[in-house]
Design a protein that fits this description.
This is Phosphonatase-like hydrolase. This protein is α/β, with parallel strands linked by helices. It is built from 10 helices and 6 strands, in the order E-H-H-H-H-H-E-H-E-H-E-H-E-H-E-H. A 6-stranded parallel β-sheet has the order 3-2-1-4-5-6.
Length: 227
């Protein structure tokens, strides 16, 4: 069993089930400029990243270079498309995940959510799920709160600072993409968890050498909580 004081969870694909709408929208925004990218390609090169950076990385992976103005323009299109998609979207969590977060908090473990989204989008999702700060989570850290996005550790460092946790060994980072695991390692987290509910497969997640790969966050109970 691991001893931790803070669990940091990615949002989409990890605690928020939004049916990959972000990456489907990213795919649509890029392909409207004449690309023919598959969703798997978009996920492989863009998952977990701040979305403007994701667009640049996806296009570069496809054609070897990227025009900064085109990437910025696609990002603006993406934000409009995502806003439309989200307002129509039914959003929930995965089975048992909310109960796990509540159990962690009952056992004195602080819960942070972090995301490559901007704060407006993140808050829209949480509102749709009826999740509130102080109940399901203690702090939300978004791409807007830091200068450097994943895989840099800045969002985890920010969460630790806000929640007064000083020992990285007592921090767990969980996410559905390789970049989440890299972020956790770069923050020197004592435990890194990959979960197969979102962007990347078990095989892809294992390539980043996390402490564990889980098929459901409900498996955290066995790893963290007294039976």
């Amino acid at each position: 069993m691991h001893t931790i004081k803070l669990a940091v969870f990615d949002m989409a694909g990890t605690v928020v089930n939004e049916d990959n709408v972000v990456y489907k929208t990213l795919q649509k925004a890029i392909n409207e400029r004449g690309f023919q990218l598959t969703l798997d390609f978009v996920l492989e090169h863009g998952a977990g990243k701040e979305k403007h950076q994701a667009i640049k990385d996806i296009i570069k992976a496809d054609i070897g270079s990227v025009d900064a103005e085109m990437a910025a323009s696609i990002f603006e299109d993406f934000k409009v498309l995502l806003n439309e998609a989200y307002h129509k979207l039914e959003v929930g969590s995965y089975d048992g995940v909310e109960q796990v977060l509540l159990s962690l908090k009952e056992n004195g473990i602080k819960v942070a959510l972090n995301t490559g989204y901007d704060s407006k989008t993140a808050q829209l999702l949480l509102n749709k799920m009826d999740w509130t700060k102080g109940k399901q989570y203690d702090v939300l850290v978004t791409a807007d709160d830091v200068v450097l996005g994943r895989p840099n550790p800045d969002m985890i460092v920010e969460a630790m600072m806000k929640l007064n946790v000083h020992d990285e060994e007592l921090v767990l980072k969980a996410g559905d993409s390789i970049i989440d695991i890299e972020e956790g390692k770069n923050a020197n987290c004592g435990v890194t968890i990959g979960v197969t509910t979102g962007a990347h497969t078990r095989h892809q997640l294992l390539s980043a050498n996390p402490t564990h790969v889980l098929d459901s966050l409900t498996e955290l109970r066995q790893l963290l909580l007294p039976s």
